[in-house]
Amino acid sequence: QVTLRESGPALVKPTQTLTLTCTFSGFSLSTSGMCVSWIRQPPGKALEWLALIDWDDDKYYSTSLKTRLTISKDTSKNQVVLTMTNMDPVDTATYYCARIPSGDYAMLDYWGQGTLVTVSS
Amino acid sequence: AIQLTQSPSSLSASVGDRVTITCRASQGISSALAWYQQKPGKAPKLLIYDASSLESGVPSRFSGSGSGTDFTLTISSLQPEDFATYYCQQFNSYPLDRLTFGGGTKVEIK
Predict the structure, then answer these.
(1) What percent of chain A has pLDDT above 90?
(2) Closest chain A residue to the Cα of B97, Cα to Cα
(3) Nearest to B104, CA basis, from B4, B3, B2, B9
(4) Which of residues 79-118 of A touch B (CB under 8 A)?
(5) Which residues of chain B have pLDDT under 70?
(6) What is the pLDDT of residue B96?
(7) How far apart are CA B107 and CA B110, in angstroms?
(8) Where are the beta strands (DSSP E) in A30-114?
(9) Are A108 and B89 inside 8 Å of each other by CB?
(10) What is the pLDDT of residue A80?
(11) DSSP bridge partners of A100
(12) pLDDT per position as a tens digit, A57-91
């Protein structure tokens, strides 16, 4: 059974760095083709893709947020960590992690429940 | 970056209606497109992948079509549980913006 769960602070202050952890089970990020991605959704708005890390430790970022994001993985702990620097109130959103399975098709087949992060002083 | 434009942004429909949502890519993406359904307060749920393949467990009233730049999600007979927001998503091989979402289509009760 595949599960993912996001964890991190619910409230951060402007200019602070946000660190979110995605803890997953039911698959291994060392399996060829496997990826984990981060996506966010501001209240009432659309989904926005942030970053992706694959089994080979290759990392991909959104152009608009590339300078602020870092994604990393700890395969032994089944965790993927996303850091976002210089947080601003516009970064208030629900942050999701999701799996892209190995294989020929690039889709997000399992999602975490999401974690709401509010940026406010 | 490849952009996805969904239309309409919202629609009102009745139970039993046939509903069609379109997604246009700013450049060709072959069939690397997926569709998701999202209900309030919930994570998105995968419906369709590879433009037209139905995810396991998804009702057959959902179907997808298209390739290149123009794609369609169709709900053949809208059910009460289908009122939700729908998103398309593409995946490409560029080093940046590997994955993008459309702006969403909210399906509301008429």
Answers:
(1) 96
(2) A62
(3) B9
(4) 96, 98, 100, 104-109, 111-114
(5) none
(6) 73
(7) 9
(8) 35-41, 48-54, 59-61, 69-74, 79-84, 93-100, 110-111
(9) yes
(10) 98
(11) A35
(12) 999 999 999 999 999 999 999 999 999 999 999 99
